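User: Just a sanity check before I run the rest of the batch. Below are the structure tokens for the first item. I only need the designed sequence back.
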């Protein structure tokens, strides 16, 4: 296992310089704020068990968390339902795009919590009588993962809600199948605001570390979720976190992770560390191109591959 000085001394700016010449990928065009993102923004951070958080240049540059929020939504839904969320959402990889209009054929459940359908559902499973209460509860839970008070970019949340036609379609499909008990519009509103939470790579690395380290935030020392919940979430990140690119990712990086349309990636190396990378241009599976290359190099240099 990697550990100690290697991760403490690792040169994150040198890694950044190595991947910056890579020009592949396209920014998401799903909302104006993502289409206008700086294609050359790039940050990478590590969060270690002793509470050390380190980052490259751009480590404090903020961005929308987008789908990198999904593991934490799943964790909070598992915690609030005492694990019963596992009856409401599948845990099998789909081999399809993150927003595919597809539910499990035999049960009508979303296929897993890392695709949009599953995340829309997990948002609806947390405690709260209305969308406002559920959004506030999620934001408080996400803030505990981060060890600081997080905020929502309300313009991004509004765009997500307004322009997320496939998400509305998925919510209606889940209503029709009896999988979703709150109204479709309420469910999408809460999901849209969760995707619009503002983070930077340092914050996201701490969130990833909290899952990697059995549910205890290494900076605040707070237990955020149980060790069992953290384990379940990291297992599903490993199999489903990079959508239809999960197999390739697991072979080449070998670290449970979650990708997102903002170009953010959160990595949770069980028992070892959390990491995050952000670079907006995406490949065909919606994974940051520079983020994937940087993750491959980081994993190889620090010996992070879980099957390594
Ligand atoms: N908010 C985005 C959406 O729902 C999240 C998708 C993603 O990051 N892959 O389309």
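Assistant: Here's the designed sequence for the first item:
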């Amino acid at each position: 296992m990697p550990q100690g000085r290697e991760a403490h001394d690792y040169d994150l700016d040198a890694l950044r310089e190595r991947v910056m010449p890579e020009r592949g990928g396209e920014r998401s065009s799903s909302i104006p704020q993502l289409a206008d993102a700086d294609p050359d923004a790039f940050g990478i951070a590590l969060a270690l068990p002793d509470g050390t958080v380190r980052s490259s240049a751009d480590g404090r540059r903020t961005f929308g968390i987008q789908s990198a929020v999904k593991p934490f939504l799943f964790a909070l839904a598992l915690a609030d339902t005492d694990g019963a969320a596992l009856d409401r959402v599948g845990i099998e990889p789909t081999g399809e795009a993150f927003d595919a209009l597809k539910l499990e054929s035999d049960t009508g459940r979303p296929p897993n919590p890392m695709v949009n359908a599953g995340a829309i559902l997990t948002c609806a499973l947390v405690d709260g009588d209305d969308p406002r209460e559920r959004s506030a509860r999620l934001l408080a839970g996400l803030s505990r993962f981060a060890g600081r008070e997080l905020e929502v970019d309300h313009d991004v949340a509004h765009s997500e809600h307004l322009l997320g036609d496939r998400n509305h379609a998925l919510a209606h499909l889940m209503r029709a199948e009896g999988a979703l008990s709150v109204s479709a519009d309420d469910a999408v509103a809460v999901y849209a605001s969760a995707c619009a939470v503002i983070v930077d790579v340092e914050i996201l690395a701490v969130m990833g570390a909290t899952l990697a380290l059995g549910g205890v935030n290494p900076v605040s020392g707070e237990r955020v979720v149980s060790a069992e919940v953290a384990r379940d979430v990291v297992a599903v990140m490993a199999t489903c976190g990079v959508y239809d690119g999960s197999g390739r990712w697991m072979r080449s990086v070998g670290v449970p992770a979650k990708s997102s349309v903002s170009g953010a990636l959160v990595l949770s190396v069980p028992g070892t560390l959390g990491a995050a990378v952000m670079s907006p241009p995406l490949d065909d599976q919606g994974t940051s191109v520079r983020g994937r290359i940087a993750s491959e190099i980081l994993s190889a240099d620090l010996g992070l591959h879980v099957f390594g």
